[in-house]
Amino acid sequence: MAKSPCNMTLLTTSQSTRRQLFFFGIPFLLTAVTTLLFLDLLNRRGWTGASTVLAILFSILFFILSVGAMHAVVGFFVRWRGSQTRISAVDPGSTSPLPEASTAIVIPIYNEPTERVCEGLRAIYESLEVKGTVEHFDFYILSDTTDPARWIEEEARWFSLVRELNALGRIYYRRRSENIARKSGNVRDFLRSWGKRHRYMVVLDADSIMTGDAIVQLVRLMESRPQAGLIQTAPRLVRGKSLFARMQQFANALYGPLFISGLNYWSREAGNYWGHNAIIRVEPFMKFCDLPILPGRKPFGGEILSHDFVEAALLIKEGWEVWLADDIQGTYEEGPPSLIDAAVRDRRWCQGNLQHSLLLFANGLRGASRTHLGMGILGYLIAPLWLSFLMLGTWMAFRLSETASPPRIKEKVIAIDYNVHVFLILGITFTLLFSPKILALLDLLRDRTRRAAFGGFRAVSKSIIFETLCSALLAPILMLFHTFFVVNIFLGRSVSWNAQERDRDGTSWIDATLVHWPHTLAGCIWTVIAFQIDPNGSYFLWLSPIAFGLLLSIPLSVFTSRTSWGNETKRDEFFLIPEELEVPPEIASIDRNLKLSSSKPAPGDIKNYDLISLVLDPYLNAVHVSLLKEKNLYQEEPPGQRDHHEWLCIQLLQGGPSKLTSKQKMTIISDPESLINLHAAAWQSSTSRLASEWRKAIKELAA
After folding, report:
1. How far is the C-alpha of 191 from the C-alpha of 186, rounded, in Å?
2. Domain membership of residue 651 as a residue range
3. Label partner for 34 (CA 20 to 30 A): which of 265, 308, 323, 431?
4. 325 is a domain residue
5. How far is residue 6 from each of residues 87, 183, 223, 679, measured CA to CA in Å?
């Protein structure tokens, strides 16, 4: 076996194959045995064509469930034994020098909350500065923003951040004129312009947070393993305020380590990429990860949405290692604040993952990469499969209840009572469902320090119970959401590219009703059918977790989105995570600065203040114009375009910004000559000729 530069043993191909056969073979055998039990159960009531379909659906769903449980079981034993499955063998406190070649920290954004983006960048910059390594890093805000007010705000806050941190020539801002290929195109555009300046790049999302220690350790890991093309960290969810967000981040912090360790067990150097909080070796990424345009029409054809899985597969295909450094601490992201926001995000992920069906059997991909792609596809197909299983089972029960004389129970193959037979299958299923939660609690009990970081055994135990109940109620809602997404994608309806709602403060009752009325209606219909099947309510009792989740979808969506409910559960020590009890300095910095910024008085009641300040503020105007010049926008104009620009400028000054459409505003702020002329005209014109917004703004600035 080969020895890695960081003293970690690599498995041979045959060893990796045996490990993967063991990992997926156990769920296969368990599925085979349980499916035989289920077949015998169906046969005892009389075999029909519907029984065949139900059995097939059961075997697929049970195998997916078994694989998920296997990740937790193997992860538990890996953590218990302390097995070496990780790349991170370098001491995080190492003082070895960083490489001379700099590392780019890139933050692609698209109509994001600008203040949060800049405060996150500030926290990372200051963390590296404290560590004394900031000179080895360059920061890039890569904007694809299409909203004119956000564009102006991004430049203003970037310029302010550079001055406050004294980081001229260290923090850069670039906005693309055309949003080609979304985030992956944004990163590729950056690499074409600046990629050769850097050996590595750390890719972040707009809501990502990483400590200086984590970033420096990633760079040292890349240096210690020259064959590593990408190292993905396992970011923790933080800064959740709503009940929904706090439940998600608790589950992520408690259950996540088991699943990640299990994933690491079988994937090792053929890991995956999640698109952010990862370090990438620039040269092979530029060479091998230029994504193809998929054949056919959208939603399956066209640009690849979930680019990250594919980029990891392409690196592995070319012999580069992709690792999951799950034990690196200090890597964070933020989750959606509500059920509806989570569904919006899942809609985009769903299309991206289903697109991978066109790549699943592409030439040259490694088996592990195909497995990652396949698991991503099944992660969304499981919803319509589960719904089909439930609907078919309900239909069969209804047909049986309508039969005048129920069919005689046939001779059984397994010599046990019918009810015992049912409970045996249910017992196996529920054991797989709940084993990750039980094992996560046992894993926590092994480590007294980690247990205290979650608030102690009592706090964790009651949080697991409450989280399990809530998850059971939310599961059927997500099932219908995902089924709707899958069906729409197969009908050819593509997803639009919208910014994520990261700072929504609760779902309104109106919004919840508009979104969840189909779920409520489905719950009502299912309840009526259940009582039609059995007026005594025994069948409804079996369906109650599904029915109650759907019937309560509207209030569940509203109440779990509330920050007040999140605060209440925090006071009662529910869903505590280590980052809440001992807030890392980087997160504390973001919280503190955002709070200070929100307490600052707004600039009067002037509408369109961003555009007005861009015209009037000499520094902001000059910065914006200089950035436009860098993009070589001084090109030959089509006939009549200059006259149109001049007309728009007159309308802007005399009628005010509110008289222009968003497209017209974008036209003006994309033209450097217009902005230069507007700045002079606004200050030199008689105020009587300017709209009221301009007069008020000039008066405030001159005061």
Report:
1. 9
2. 609-702
3. 265
4. no
5. 8, 33, 9, 58
CB 395 within 8 A of CB 387: no
Cβ burial of 377 (10 Å; 0-12, 13-18, 19+) is middle
d(CA 357, CA 117): 34
Residue-averaged pLDDT of the chain:
89
Which 3 state secondary structure label does DSSP give 209?
A: strand
CA distance 10 to 500: 39
Unique residue bearing structure tokens 């952010």: 276
CB 191 within 8 A of CB 282: yes
Q: Do residues 577 and 454 touch, judged by C-beta distance below 8 A?
A: yes
Q: What's the pLDDT score for residue 394?
A: 94
Length of the chain: 703
CA distance 306 to 500: 16
260 neighbors 269 (Cβ within 8 angstroms): no
**Which residues make Cβ contacts (< 8 Å) with residue 3, sequence separation at least 6?**
9, 10
Q: Euclidean distance between the first and final Cα of the chain, in Å?
A: 74
DSSP 105-149: EEEEESS--HHHHHHHHHHHHHHHHHHT-GGGEEEEEEE----HH
Which among 136, 96, 144, 90 has a CA at the least distance from the CA of 117?
A: 144
Strands across the sheet containing 331-333: 209-210, 331-333, 236-237
Is pLDDT of 89 > 70?
no
DSSP-derived pairing of the beta strands 102-109 and 137-143: parallel
For residue 381, is it within any domain?
Answer: no
Question: What is the per-residue pLDDT across 490-534, written as a single tens digit (0 to 9) for each?
Answer: 998 866 545 555 555 689 999 999 999 999 999 999 999 999 999
pLDDT in tens, 304-336: 989 999 999 999 999 999 999 988 999 999 999
Indicate if the alpha-carbon torsion angle 235, 236, 238, 243 is positive or negative.
Answer: positive
Q: pLDDT exceeding 70 applies to what percent of the chain?
A: 89
Strand partners, 137: 103
Task: Evaluate whether residue 253 is within a structural domain.
Answer: no
Q: What is the pLDDT of residue 295?
A: 86
- Give 417-435 pLDDT, tens digit per residue: 778 888 999 999 999 999 9
Paired sense of beta strands 171-175 and 331-333, if any: unpaired
Q: Is 522 left (phi over 0), alpha (psi -120 to 50) or beta?
A: alpha
**pLDDT attached to residue 574:** 97
Question: Is 23's pLDDT higher than 60?
Answer: yes
3-state secondary structure of 322: strand
Q: Is residue 655 part of a domain?
A: yes
Q: Is 283 left (phi over 0), alpha (psi -120 to 50) or beta?
A: alpha
Q: CB within 8 A of 61, min separation 6: which ones?
A: 382, 385, 386, 389
Lowest-pLDDT range of 68-77, 291-300, 564-573:
291-300
* Tokens (6 digits) for 523: 């719950």
- Centroid of chain to Cα 133: 29
Question: Is 204:137 a contact under the CB 8 Å cutoff?
Answer: no
Q: What is residue 249's predicted lDDT score, i.e. its pLDDT?
A: 97
Closest CA to 87 of 243, 278, 256: 278
